[in-house]
């Protein structure tokens, strides 16, 4: 019987290992991986009337997170020093939601954030931007609102409270317990309809009631401001959009600096906490930013990964604008 030489045994073992690693790389796991995404200038995405070209140096930048399904290999052997974060599918996908539905919701959140950014920026410049209610843009399948509310419904009253903005919905829902039924008045196809919608506990916060809808404000704009973010989703570019609109309308905010910005905006101008701050901070560092504006709630974590990058915590649009104008 022939005995294999050690060199051949090693070669055969290496070949088998290579095949196993290749299989593990191409087979998806039940985890997702968050990775840093390059910061990009906001100016090319926004068009305003009589735009001020400003300086060619600096500018307002947004930063995102690249998200994809992790392979079995990445799940078993997480990358080191790549800025990657592995999360289980249950943390990325809402219960009962497919990846396609999650992407659709993310794009709707982006569209809503653009409307809010335009309103906040124009109001800060003295324009009147009236709000006429909250529009339903997504009804999640399997939730209490499914089959009751429809995309395009304009919510004007909730449990007797007048609704002018999505924040009014949030305030009214604070009086509701999970499992309660809610009396709604909506405008659909030009007619008012009285509806009753159930609620259930939110998966991530069991004490918070949800109907299973995504809403955005119904706004009327005095200027034709257009934002095209392509396939980028989520609400966290709202603060960057609003600051750039002010900048393009002739109020120099960057002063030749490269300012990377992240933060969702409420219609009131409040800057809201966002996710993926580790990856976004690393993206800002890679962009050689002079400043990184982040929500106050994210500032401590951002500073853990910022290195020499200056992190500025802001709680409102007014505070962010004031800092850039004078800082």
Describe the structure.
The mean pLDDT is about 85. Among the domains are: about 35-65 and about 225-325, Ribosomal Protein S5, domain 2, CATH 3.30.230.10; about 130-220, Pdz3 Domain (Roll). It has helices at about 5-25, 70-75, 90, 100-125, 165-175, 240-250, 275-285, 295-305, 315-325, and strands spanning about 30-35, 40, 45, 60, 65-70, 85-90, 130-140, 155-160, 160, 180-190, 190-200, 200, 210, 215-220, 225, 260, 265, 270, 290-295, 310-315. Helix 8 links the parallel strand 19 and strand 20. With about 325 residues, the protein is an alpha+beta fold.
Using brief descriptors, characterize the structure shown.
327 residues; Ribosomal Protein S5, domain 2; Pdz3 Domain; five-stranded mixed beta sheet
Summarize the structure.
The chain has 9 helices and 20 strands. With 327 residues, the protein is an alpha+beta fold. The protein is globular.
Query: What's the order of the H and E elements?
Result: HEEEEEHEHHEEEHEEEEEEHEEEHEHEH
General shape: globular
Helix content: 25-40%
Instruction: Tell how many strands the DSSP assignment holds.
Output: 20
* Largest sheet, strands/sense/barrel: 6 strands, antiparallel
Instruction: Report the structural category.
Output: alpha+beta
In DSSP terms (H or I, runs of 4 or more residues), the helix count works out at 9
Low-confidence stretches: none
